[in-house]
Amino acid sequence: MRIGNSNVFHVAAILALLLVLTYPAHAADVTVSSGWFRALPPSVPSGGYFTLHNGGKTTAILTDVESPACAAMMMHQTTASGMDHVMALDIRAGADMVFAPGGYHLMCMASTPLLKVGASVPVTLFFKDGHKITAQFQVRSATGK
Ligand SMILES: [Cu+2]
């Protein structure tokens, strides 16, 4: 059988497609643990805390967060002068990123009735590469219990 030029190009195109399809997806290697909210009255923003681990080989970029327990949710960083709105957050390959009181946190604006002490609520994290992760967060009282 004779292999013509067009066949060679065909094979090359298929190989290129396979490379694209099997390329490791960044955010697929990111895991969420220890998620919880400090539930406060709906008139006050409630903080959300968790740990992210990037088990992948490339930086994952967290760009958005949402939950049915919050009418609106943002990423914040507590600073000496107050709180900054965080638009995107890099999690380096192999690194942990801890969201904790006094540092990075989720700010749940206008909580819904789902944010009830003792409940567990889903939070979805969106990454720049199009991946998203949904994790369950425990809802604790104002004292963190
Ligand atoms: Cu905040």
Q: Runs with pLDDT <50, length 5+?
A: none
Number of helices: 1
User: Tell me, what's the shape?
Assistant: elongated
First-last Cα distance: 74 Å
Average pLDDT reading? 88
CATH class: Mainly Beta
Q: Would you kindly provide a written description of the structure presented here, covering whatever features stand out?
A:
With 145 residues, the chain is mainly beta. The termini are far apart. The chain has one domain (27-140): Immunoglobulin-like (Sandwich), CATH 2.60.40. Helices cover 12% and strands 50% of the residues. It has one helix spanning 5-22; strands spanning 30-38, 46-54, 60-66, 70-79, 82-86, 89-91, 96-99, 104-111, 120-127, 132-140. The model has no long low-confidence stretch (mean pLDDT 88). The structure holds copper (II) ion (CU). Copper (II) ion is lined by residues 76, 83, 105, 107.
Which short descriptors sum up this protein?
145 residues, elongated, binds copper (II) ion
